[in-house]
Design goal:
This protein is of the alpha/beta class. The protein has a single domain (56-498), classed as Metal-dependent hydrolases (TIM Barrel). The chain has 18 helices and 26 strands. The strands form 6 sheets. Strands 1, 2, 3, 4, 5, 21, 22, 23 and 24 form a 9-stranded mixed beta sheet that branches. Helix 5 packs antiparallel against helix 6, helix 6 packs across helix 8 (218-231) and helix 9 (251-260) runs parallel beside helix 10 (290-299). The protein is globular and about 70 Å long. The two termini are 36 Å apart.
Amino acid sequence: MSEFFKIEGGYVFDPLNTIDGQVHDIWIRDGKIISPPSDPSVRPTRTLNASGLVVMPGGIDMHSHFAGPKVNAARKMRPEDKRNAEKVLRTSKTHSGTMGSVPSTFATGYKYAGLGYTTAFDAAVPPLSARHAHEELADTPCIDKGFFTLLGNNHYVMKSIADQEPEKLRAFVGWLTGAAKAYAIKLVNPGGVEVWKHRASGNVHTVDEVVDHFGVTPRDIIRGLAQAVDELHMPHPIHIHANNLGIPGNWETTMRTMEALEGHRGHITHIQFHSYGGGDGDEDTFCSRVQPLVDYVNSHENITVDVGHIVFGDTTSMTGDGPLGYFLHNVFGTKWFSSDTEMEAGCGIAPIKYRNMSMVHAWQWAVGLEWYLLMEDPWRIAMSTDHPNGGTFLSYPLVIRLLMDRTYRKDFMKTIHPKVRAGSVLADLDREYTLNEIAIITRASPAKLLGLKNKGHLGVGADADITIYTPHENKQTMFELPRFVIKSGNIIVEQGDIRHNHFGKTFHIAPEFDRGAENDIREWFEQYYSIRFRNYPVSADYLHGEEQVICERS
């Protein structure tokens, strides 16, 4: 007979089930949350006294970068980043690992779990590199995981759109997602990466600029793929890294991108990097344009966002946006790595440093907070730093403190560039997030946006992924060191120490599509790819503890 595990007496924050700090008991059996037994003679095999402690679902990072070829390249190109970083030592229960801005696989899993996070998704893996990514996910312990696969510059996608063949496009998207064992579709600088491959310093600068050789525009790509994703009933909408990331005045491109999604679901990722005013080449005009964008999102329920907040200090930029990688290399004067992936994607990597007295960097910091504080519906925004691009995921407790403590936020503002202190609306925003709202943007909202019905809440049938915190006036202190972290019903972390070397599952989807289209895909594939068609798909038995999420009408 399986065991009963009871967590009793804690202050529970479970927004999906409208529990806002009430004392509540939680019963667990076979890794799932269950109803309290109706038989009064049933006693729990284990009881955890959570009296006086805060109980939340396990954290979910819906947009991170911790597996796949560009992550591994970044690890190799930055030995100096690891030289003075914390060492993760081997214990009787854990492997050793390295830290820095791009931790090793085992260290990534341990640190996520130690922070109270039990699920994370890598947001940008080329389909051709899916097997590599799955191998790294299999070496990332403690958490459940998955990845989004890149399609915004895929040759077959652009050809299908140019030929006005939406049925062929839909079949290809369904086939490719299942072949890669991916969870969602990601667009990075749609069309722009392809132009970068063909022209020196090439890129697209508006959503209506034509992509070389294909005769399509970013707007066409966005709308075509958004329609395909919706028609395939994928659990997560199309996930978009828009054109012109980081460029002064890019808010207009972001607005046009959101308008292009009319009639379809769309998730704009690391929205902070896409919310700037100013003129091209004139740093002094750089400013925030969050207000018109957040007004649009507040009034259009088909759009959701994650923030991509920056943290001052050293980190590594890694992106599927090849021209952006080159741009950052030139701005920071650091080393640079660039790579193309056949007919699919590209990437760029460069070390970067955010400085609090840089006007541009200070604006980036302020813009992220403006998004959190001006967004009316916390269920359509999720916390992220675009790890490691904006900073490490380990900085989430700092971001939480900035959101929950306006006095600390205003004091912090005194340390940034004076033009930003004077120009940002941040100084006038007195809103403070509650613990319930923090539980939404770090747990319940990401689960909802991802379509993971058994994550992000503590209701009956949910995965027993639970984080228990010791209350503290300093919310950074509180969220940096959970008292307990429970994964699938097992205590895996206690006061920062890994107690159980749990290995989580990998989420993926396999949309239904017209199998008759495979012949055309195979013919194209065999003509242009460097590998054979039959060697491309990743089989389910290659995954470590997989779970296929069903694509169904919402």
